[in-house]
Amino acid sequence: MIRLFESIAALRGWWRATTAIAAGCVAALSMPPLDLWPALFIAVPVFLALLGDVELRSWRSGFGTGWLFGLGYFSVAFHWIGFAFLVDAATYLWMMPFMLGALAGGMAIYWGLAAVVARRAGGRGLALVLMCAAALGAVEWLRGHLMTGFPWAAPGLAVDGMGAVAQLAAYAGMTGLTVLVMLWAGLPLVLLKEQSRPARRAAAVLLCLLPLGWAFGLLRLSGDAGETMPGVSLRIVQPNIGQEQKWRDDHARTIFDTLKRMSTEPTASQPNGIAGVTHVIWPESAVSFFIDESPVAKAELKPLLGGRTVLITGSIRRDAEGANDGVPNIHNSIITFDGNADVVTRYDKWRLVPGGEFLPFEWLLEPLGFRKVVTVPGSFAAGPGPVTLSVPGLPGVAMLVCYEAIFPDRLVDPVARPGMIINVTNDGWFGRSTGPYQHLAQTRLRAIEQGLPIVRAANTGVSAVISPYGTYVMRLPLLESGVIDSTLPAAISATFYARFGDLVTAILIVSLATGACLIRMRAKTV
After folding, report:
1. Is the peptide bond before 462 cis (omega within 30 degrees of 0)?
2. How far apart are the C-alpha atoms of 425 and 326, rounded to whole Å?
3. Is the same domain home to 93 and 211?
4. Fewest C-beta in 10 Å: which of 286, 314, 410, 427?
5. 255 and 179, same structural domain?
């Protein structure tokens, strides 16, 4: 093994660059739905072997090694985004290589910077492993915050395939899990290559934290009593409407009728249909018209809801008060109708998708022919931020539209903690790709981090009811039409992460960086 790592470190030129990219591609196999997390324990040591051979003062080589590793990782992890450009290929296909290349290359810059810090401050061996985990944790936090943030495919998401280890999210959050996962994945390099016995012993001890984390997770899961909210009976509708049909005017009536039929039909668990359901939930932008402005829709919903059932639906919403030059703003919203089909709450999405709902650097890209993928009669506008809403028959509700569920920070109202989260989404853009599964896995982590149940309605899947421990109470397969009839899991007490945010992440980063510096200082004095 020592000779193998020495051979990898000795690679030069294109062989070196190709190996770094390939290692990143392999590392991305740890993401859902493959969940091949052992791939990290191969890819990360290869990356560190390449990085450890970089001359200490050569920041360009260090950056290049980290950037190429990140480029391979994000190219594979983000490939599903390309499916969105195929929905209207005649208009958008030419944009795909530019947008995907820019996104993967841009995200890889963070990893390039982390590599520079890790090499210059960590040196080689155990110190490099510690500093690399700390630096990647720091840049991943930045990646989730700078320029609106895009924390998709953080290495910490690999815990989706690691069973009970995911329970650590209740304390460390996704970024803290990234630090731990990258630390554990890098330690085999020390065990297989390092000649220092103290370093190997320290690496073995740190690696033992992985099974200990798994055991802790099992202990935490044993406290899940499966409690539910009394008097709440949910129906989640997954209509599985193809994206190419969703916004066609001639399909609006058919789609609305489909949603109504699926909301009312009897099932094995609800033989009386909607009469036994307290809350029906439709997915993001369930219909293509302004449902809250439609007297026809209200007239048809009122007898359907029967004065007793609440309808919660994703919908576009027009805001005349926010009009700009006479053109009203359009919100991607969640609208709640009471049993009489009257609107009782509205939630407006406030984290908009770059390139989807708004075009970054529009002044530069629009003259070149680039357009946002989602077009509306006006401009999308962001809502005010997280808020806890009062929905009849439910505890306080935090609402998330689609992409908002990938952010662990500012997820819920910090003043009024909700009792549940409702997430509506439309992953129909991405077909049978890895994207919908990764989206679901990130939503599951939010439940564990917050200690709140999540009810998820997805147009094409994956719809699910998720307990505050991150277990799937019920879910529907991707690209299948159907409904989920379920009770609502009860929330648990606010988790450590819900109360203190990324405090554990900060402690981990500082501790690992300090440990790396102490190892280097000791090595210089020996």
Report:
1. yes
2. 30
3. yes
4. 410
5. no
**Distance between terminal CA atoms of the chain?**
27
* 107: containing domain: 2-223+501-525
| Cβ–Cβ < 8 Å for 461, 439 | no
Q: Each residue of 238-263: pLDDT tens digit?
A: 999 988 788 788 889 999 999 999 99
Q: Whose CA is closest to 475, among 490, 448, 455, 449?
A: 455
- The answer to whether 208 is a known catalytic residue is no
| CATH code at position 302 | 3.60.110.10
Q: What is the mean pLDDT of residues 348-375?
A: 65
| 300-359 pLDDT tens trace | 999 999 999 999 999 999 986 766 666 788 999 999 999 999 999 999 999 998 766 665
In the DSSP assignment, the letter for residue 108 is H
Whether 284 is catalytic is yes
Catalytic residue among 193, 246, 349, 372: 349
Residue 422 falls within a domain, yes or no?
A: yes
Please, which pLDDT band fits residue 196 given cuts at 50, 70 and 90? confident
Measured CA angle at 150 (ends 149, 155), to 5 deg? 125
How far apart CA 228 and CA 225 sit, in angstroms, is 9
Count of structural domains, the chain:
2
CA–CA separation, 326 vs 317, rounded Å? 16
Gap between the Cα atoms of 479 and 14, Å rounded: 41
Q: Which of the following is catalytic: 25, 140, 260, 402?
A: 402
Q: What is the pLDDT of residues 221-236, one digit of tens each?
A: 999 989 999 999 999 9
DSSP 306-356: TTT-EEEEEEEEEEEEEEETTEEEEEEEEEEE-TTS-EEEEEE--SPPBTT
| 3-state per-residue secondary structure call for 366-399 | HHHCCCCCCCCCCEECCCCCCCEECCCCCCCEEE
Both 479 and 507 in one domain: the answer is no
Cβ atoms 66, 72 nearer than 8 A: no
- Same-domain check for residues 507 and 395: no
The pTM of this model reads 0.94
Query: What average pLDDT score do residues 79-95 get?
Result: 81
Does 495 map to a domain? no
**Alpha helix positions (H), 53-95:** 59-77, 89-92
- Residue 494 inside a domain? The answer is no
Of 140, 193, 194, 284, which is the active-site residue?
A: 284
